[in-house]
């Protein structure tokens, strides 16, 4: 017998060398909507992009990465 289960979405924000794990506020929202939701707490998300999803530890993991360059 096959069982189909929906995998939990997990969002990872890379900020200052640390991975910050963000929970999914609403499973029906798009990835961009989740990014906009968390942008109030993490302003770096206003210039970030989401990576392609990866299945890891029984969840679907998205990484938010800043597209800002470094000066110097």
From TrEMBL:
It comes from the Bacteria. Pfam families: Prok_Ub. InterPro entries: Prok_Ub, PRTRC_protein-C. NCBIfam families: PRTRC_C. This is PRTRC system protein C.
